[in-house]
Every structure is written in structure tokens, then in C-alpha cells.
# Entry
Amino acid sequence: MRSYSLVAPAKINLYLEIIGDRPDGYHELVMVLQAISLADKIEISSIEIDAISIKCDHPGVPDNQNNLAYRAAALMAEQFPHAIARYGGVEIKIQKTIPIAAGLAGGSSNAAAVLVGLDLLWELGLTQGELQELGGQIGSDVPFCLEGGTALATGRGEVLSPLANLDQLYLVLAKYHNLQISTPWAYKTYRQQFSHTYVSATQDLQSRRDRVHSGPIVAAVMHQDGAEIGRLLHNDLEKVALPEYPQIQQLRQMIGTQPGVLGAMMSGSGPTVFGLVQSQAEATQVMKTVRGQIPDPELGLWTAKFISQGISLV
Ligand code: C5P
# Structure
């Protein structure tokens, strides 16, 4: 049985600005995305029966079309029917470490790993551009998850410009296990409350993108200035998530005021909060202090490091 094992890292948003609506129902975004060392492990194997089988050690992960990893395999099977005929079906084992529905792109990263794994398993020789195009059909974050590192993302989030690697920064992540935020809810609520701020003319959209591209957050990334990045963290979706979920606001406040923390924010559509620090020792210390102040077993805490790669083989 041929098989490949892959590492599927999570991502955080260092910057997320919603600039407008799109005709396809999504939002026009400008984001700075960062891959981190918190990662799932994905094992992809050929199986004799002509099927897609998902096995996961986490009970909350679906084994059907609701799982982006399943959708990635189904898309590949549809695009390359000769491969299924030649190699049989596929079994995808997911060892979950990234919390689910957390704003960390865990599902998107699993899907990205399936694309890379099937390209290898089926000896397709797809280019990075072809993988990106397929990834974009599965979810807005999948193209970034393939690339990893640090990138400016525009469009739905699938149009990427790589930025300087920031692999000297560390973070602590905090998420209540019993708190999950649906991404469609976050964007829908934002639209209800803030659509009056949206721009729509092509020229205005471009000038908003340019403003970020040549603005302070990208400059801070390019200078690898952790303190400035921490100061400039921004996420428009906090405007809907924080008032609705005071626990997120409380975590953000607590983490943001710990010694050594350069800045704290909610990632993506939440509810995970992260705090940036300069070293693993500081990340461990912040994690211990937060654990001491919130002994609730429902609070999950992790430390991680910024990384410069996306999907990689084990
Ligand atoms: O692309 P993805 O499946 O990750 O998006 C999940 C949901 O988030 C979409 O159905 C949409 O409601 C919202 N979304 C959006 N604009 C984006 C990305 C996501 O409105 N650029």
C-alpha cells in the first residue's frame, strides 16, 4: 500500500480588513496571513475499493462532504478520473491538533495537504499554480495553506503575494473548547452592521488594497519588526465577535497585558485569541500565567512558532 504523511500547519491573521462585497456573495479582503507550527498530521494511502474514506481521532470532524479534506479528494477524483481507475480509492487519516472551527484554517490546511498528497500518490506532477487553482475551488484559505510562510492575501483571500518570512516570532494561543464561531455567521453579521463602510468601485477597491500593501503593517513585516507588528495587529471581524462573546474579549485583554506580549488579537473569524512574543520561553510563561488565572478545563492553550513553509512531507 503506497502512502504519504504530511504536515498541515495552522494559520493566523496578523491583519484582516473587509473592504467590500463581491458578486459571488463573498467579501473582498486584505489580509496578512502567517503559517504557524501548530499542525495536524495527514496520512494519505491508496485503498483497493473505489471510495474516499476519512478517519480522524477527533469526534467533531465529519467524514463526509462537510469535511474540506473530503471535498479536496472528491475534487481531485473528479478532475483526474484516470487516477482513480489506476490507483483505486483513497484513505485519509487525520491526526488533529489544530482546534476545529477556531479561525485557524485547520480544515483548509487539511484540504491543502490532501491536494499535495494526491498529487504525489497519483503521480500527477501538478504545478504549484495548478494546486493553488484547485485549492481556491475548495476554500478561500486553501491556497495560502499550500504556500505557508507570510503573505498578503487579497480577493476572497486566495490571491497571494509572499512577504518576508517572520520565523523568529512565537505565540501563545487560547481557545475555549466549548466555543465555536461559524465563519458565515461572522461575515453575515459584519455585512448587516458595516456594509455602509464597503467600497465597490474597482478603483476604490484597488486603492484600499494598495493602502495596506504600502502601509505600516506590511512595512513592519518587511522589517521583521515584531514590536511594531504586535502594535498594528488588526481584525475587522473582532467588531462582531467581541461584543457577542465577552469571553474572547476577556482572553484578549488578559493575554495582551502579560509581560513580553507584543500584541494580542482574535484570529480570522475566531474564537481563538493569540498573543505574540519574542521567544519560546516567554510563550511558555504567558501560557502558565493564563492557565493560573483561568483554571477552567474548557480553556485550551498552546504555544507555537511562526514558520516559513506550508504543507510539507513528514
Ligand atoms: O471560503 P470559505 O469556505 O472558507 O468561506 C467560508 C464562509 O466565509 C463563506 O461561505 C462566506 O460566508 C464567508 N467568507 C466571505 N468572504 C471571504 C471568505 C469567506 O464572506 N472572502
Q: What stands out?
A: The mean pLDDT is 96. Residues 170-305 form a domain with the Alpha-Beta Plaits fold (CATH 3.30.70.890).
